[in-house]
Amino acid sequence: MNCPIGDGEPTVSLVNEPLTMKSFDRSSEFQRAIAQSRTSVITLLDAAEAARFNFSHRPADDSLAARERSGQAAFAGEWGEEPIDDCRMIISMLMSAAEFHMWGFCDLVMAEKTGPNTLDVLARAAIENLARALWLSEPSIGATERLKRMQTERLYSAAEEAKLDAERRRDAEERKQRILATAAALGWKSLKSEKGRPKRFVVRPQATELAGQLMLDVDDRGLGKFLYRLLSASTHGTTYALARFIHAIDDHPEGRDDLGVLAVSSTEVNLLSSALVFAYISAMRSWLLYLGWNDDPTWQKAQANSLGAL
Fold this sequence. Notes:
By secondary structure, this protein is mainly alpha-helical. The chain is 60% helix and 4% strand. It has a three-stranded antiparallel sheet with strand order 1-3-2, with no helix packed on it. The longest helix has 27 residues, at 28-54. The two termini are 25 Å apart.
């Protein structure tokens, strides 16, 4: 279906998207077509919250997180007295941010006025947060590497915050100096500075690379990198990504030309929902393995049901 920009009635044409809906008309057919994939996302998010409630957001006693936490005094310094706990908090914040974007995605597909590019923005943000959480929570890296990754993230964050205004620049600089002072006391070496990048203790992967790891890509043509590049192009206003939703230039009865936009389709929603389910399970598995709660029955049942429903 074509939906002209403006107040006129939509122009109907034969396209290979029978369940594509006007941005202002969510039909029962469209809702039925996306119901299963949308429910998979919601079920997964609900189960994750229930699992966290089961273990009170704390690591299990015999977990990797608990063992690292028991030795965190050795890493205390000007950057904080409980750096392992701080790292766990940052990972939790990234997971929560992803979940809010996913909830927003699920709500938005049912809204009266939703364009496909809006969904791209939410899906991309969720994937990026999940990918960064996966990088920080990787179970096998150990406390030192985890803290180096976390403090590298904080240095990048400080560098971005410093661009906002003078007061934030001062705060960011003070935070950076505390991080660097504690790292020096621990004998950490910072990597050689590169133009346009702040000091760092490890190589910080680009979001596209992390998206590939999140989605288990085996090469540069994998789903994770492809999807993230496509969603980023849409988010950043790159023409090829925006234009893929335009079906035709329609002649308007009043003599003007309107864009015939292929609005939100059930196919698009189902593909993005499936990608979000897979990405979330990937990140959550790593996170729960680190916390020692990967065998939580609520979570195990939910991920099996969500994957089975897609």
